[in-house]
Amino acid sequence: MATTSNGLIAIRDSSKMYVIEDKGGAIALMLAALFFLGTWPAVLTLLERRGRLPQHTYLDYSITNLLAAVFIALTFGQIGESKPNMPNFFTQLTQDNWPSILFAMAGGIVLSLGNLATQYAWAFVGLSVTEVITCSITVVIGTTLNYFLDDRINKAEILFPGVGCFLIAVCLGSAVHSSNAADNNKKLNSTNKDIEDGVSGVSNSYINTERAKAGTAEFLIELENRRSIKVFGSKTILGLGIVFFAGICFSLFSPAVNLATNDQWHLLEQGVPHLVVYTAFFYFSISCFVVGIGLNIWFLYKPVLGLPRSSFKAYLNDWNGRHWALLAGLLCGFGNGFQFMGGQAAGYAAADAVQALPLVSTFWGIILFGEYRKSSKKTYSLLVSMLSMFIIAVGVLMASSGHRRH
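Structure tokens predicted for Ureide permease 1-like:
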């Protein structure tokens, strides 16, 4: 085992693949995952607000998301000599480990469905509140499942108060959304224009030749005209339904990968080694890729939620913002990979601390999209309270991390 001078990261490299074993190293990976997984939604939201079809964006995203998994498998998973109890990536591809492979692929399927749903939810509900609700469901269901799957290696007296802190932050986040929505309605009503039937009749009156300032009614109307998913006049229940569906999907993918790498149900034949996290992540990403590509090609020709019809040829010719979509796929791919690598060392329940990613997403929402600009003092107070509670939640969940016995 090699340990850095500050004692934070220990990497076992005895002529085989790199495996993070130290708690400090695991937490470092989880912090990196927190940043990556909180940033890529902001990138996709930016593209949707600029008018790029979400089907086109998700197809690009899926490509680099898979490439990130392949890179991780061929580097961390393949370096060095294969060992009987910890084979490298290529060796494990030939072994009889189908039960674990199916769990990993099931995790990829539910994650892909969740990600597909959220790219529409961001438009209807907003970036911050979508991430808050989906992450709260993930914490309540997914973290609890991982705690028991991990044979309770995480400290319950710390873990579950952390879950409670997260739920408090969720309530505050919902209050932020409600207060901000009321602020926006007041701004729009002040224009004395009826926007219930759309914005086509008011856009010319209220959009100046110069770009409207964030937080104004003119900005909200300009955004509606420009974005690809039209949200004015939509029913609240539609957006929330999409969000809750995504949250349930997200809550299941981490436990599925946990089962794939640790075989808690003893489905593998005796003598067959567990899937190493790199191989599991590879299979996970393969199924995520297939579902994402398949459904979005279908959505090109059979669009949902009022989006225009497109084609595969139109997608190939759409280079507007493609580099951002490809970047988002890399961020998500490496973020998920780092989460699983950290979870393998410290416990997947502690790794679910990355579900505090709304802390990052809200930051980008404020900086990039001007969310909460010109809002009321009530909204600002709730926003500060929410972000403070998220910081506490991240710290408490990470403090609960135990050390997996190998």
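DSSP finds 15 helices and three strands in the chain.
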